[in-house]
Design brief:
By secondary structure, the chain is α/β, with parallel strands linked by helices. It has helices at residues 3-8, 14-21, 24-33, 60-63, 72-84, 96-106, 122-137, 154-158, 163-166, 184-191, 216-227, 279-285, 303-318, 321-336, 338-342, 365-373, 377-388, 414-433, 436-446, and strands spanning 39-43, 46-49, 54-57, 113-119, 141-145, 176-179, 196-201, 230-234, 258-261, 273-278, 346-351, 356-360, 392-393, 395-396, 403-406. Helix 7 (122-137) crosses helix 12 (279-285), helix 14 (321-336) packs parallel to helix 18 and helix 17 packs across helix 19.
Length: 449
């Protein structure tokens, strides 16, 4: 098959093909907000459209491309693996590559984590945490937090703390409850019933880039230990250097019973995730030969995903990208925090490593008019011009949020950070004046159906 000829000979645009076969409403959104570019290629922190224009990618595939888009080191490892004709999934047998990646992951975590179960995604890793956690503790309940995001399959959705995702799919699974993020008293009131199998929490919430209050995560871990609940940290977005450490839980010295990872594990090439767990949890479920296959997934430990994971870890360490994430994150905050004092519409600038957000708030008439139409519209007045005028890709952090976030690849340069900071300053300054063209656009976007 000639892939290039296939791509060149579709006979219709990428957007039209997607609308006809996959999701017309998503294409309608892209066209309404001006994100309907035709993309030709990508490299590192940059995207290129079919006209050859370069765009600075500060979303990184929602955090998949920590080591950069089309990373050459990961690609070379995948090509080599394909040429080795490795045996792949044996069903009744094992191969070396899954063990090698599992060992590499566990070596980078606290001693409490001793076993690894591979999945195809972050949501599957969280599903596995709930399933195995309930079996190991013989308890029925799972507690999560408001605004937490743990995936969109039914079990993960039942732990999801965002009504825009859950409301249309009720009733969800029984036994799932939520508590406010940062509230230890409410968490303890749930855990002291001693029927909670798993408490799952993002160390930094991805939807709004919400950092935990001081002492919260340490306190939550202590409460879980006290009441016999498994402490699970969802590192699907924050893992592998996103916050300036290999895992976000390192900032708070945590030792979870369960850790879920995915997104950037393969460098963005192959779907892969994992549940890392304590020996005690694993051996409570896989406790005998009849139970040796109590959980699994056909493609989860596939050879390409395992090679990609090993190569991604190599790239992180070979190029010191975790330290680079921390350094660039400090530069980013240094360049953007002054916006809080300069502009009355900027409520907060926050971040940790290359996980960054700016939050807006205002009391002027035009601002209030936009927010009455739909909360977060002012943030859209920043995201769209950043893309159309400055060729910088960002996004509104979530439904009903006046927050813009970025999750860029770690291969950014200092100049890239400065380019974004300068463009952001100019864009917020212009949006604050709310020219009629921008206001009309925002109200049109609010009416998308």
């Amino acid at each position: 098959m000639d892939v290039r000829a296939l791509l060149d000979g579709t006979g219709e645009s990428d957007l039209d093909l997607w609308a006809r076969t996959i999701n017309p409403q998503f294409v309608r959104v892209l066209r309404t907000i001006g994100f309907d570019r035709r993309w030709a290629r990508a490299e590192g922190a940059y995207l290129y459209d079919t006209d050859g224009a370069r765009y600075l990618d500060l979303l990184g595939g929602f955090g998949m491309y920590n080591v950069g888009r089309n990373n050459r080191g990961v690609r070379a490892a995948l090509i080599e693996a394909l040429e080795l004709d490795t045996p792949g999934m044996l069903a009744m047998g094992v191969t070396a590559l899954p063990g090698l990646l599992a060992d590499a992951l566990l070596q980078r975590t606290p001693p409490r984590l001793e076993r690894c179960l591979f999945t195809n995604s972050g949501t599957e890793a969280n599903e596995a945490a709930f399933k195995l956690g309930r079996a190991a503790t013989k308890r029925p309940r799972v507690i999560s937090t408001d605004h937490g995001f743990h995936g969109l399959t039914l079990g993960a959705l039942s732990a999801n703390g965002n009504p825009e995702f859950t409301a249309r799919f009720q009733p969800l699974l029984p036994g799932f409850d939520r508590v406010p993020f940062g509230d230890l008293d409410t968490l303890e009131a749930q855990l002291k019933q001693e029927d909670v199998a798993v408490f799952i929490v993002e160390a930094v919430q991805g939807k709004g880039i919400n950092l935990p209050p001081a002492g919260y995560l340490e306190g939550a871990q202590e409460l879980c230990r006290r009441y016999g609940t498994l402490f699970c940290v969802d590192e699907v977005m924050t893992g592998f250097g996103r916050t300036g450490t290999m895992f976000a839980f390192e900032h708070w010295g945590l030792e979870p019973d369960l850790v879920t990872v995915a997104k950037s594990l393969s460098g963005g090439y192959v779907p892969v995730g994992a549940l890392l767990m304590s020996r005690a949890v694993h051996e409570s479920v896989f406790d005998s030969m009849p139970h040796a296959m109590s959980h699994g997934s056909t493609f989860a430990p596939n050879e390409l995903a395992m090679v990609a994971g090993l190569a991604m870890l190599h790239e992180l360490e070979e190029h010191r990208l975790v330290a680079r994430s921390a350094q660039l994150g400090e530069r980013l905050l240094e360049r953007t925090r002054p916006l809080v004092d300069e502009f009355d519409v900027v409520r907060d600038v926050r971040g940790i490593g290359l996980m960054w957000a700016i939050e807006f708030e205002g009391d002027g008439f035009a601002y209030r008019m936009l927010e009455r139409a739909q909360r977060g519209l002012f943030a859209q007045l920043v995201v769209v011009p950043l893309f159309t005028d400055h060729r910088i890709l960002t996004q509104v952090a979530g439904h009903d949020m006046a927050v813009v976030r970025i999750l860029p690849p770690f291969v950014l340069t200092n100049d890239d950070v400065d380019e974004f900071a300068d463009a952001l300053h100019e864009t917020v300054k212009r949006a604050r004046r709310m020219p009629s063209s921008l206001t009309k656009f925002a109200l049109t976007a609010a009416g998308i159906r």
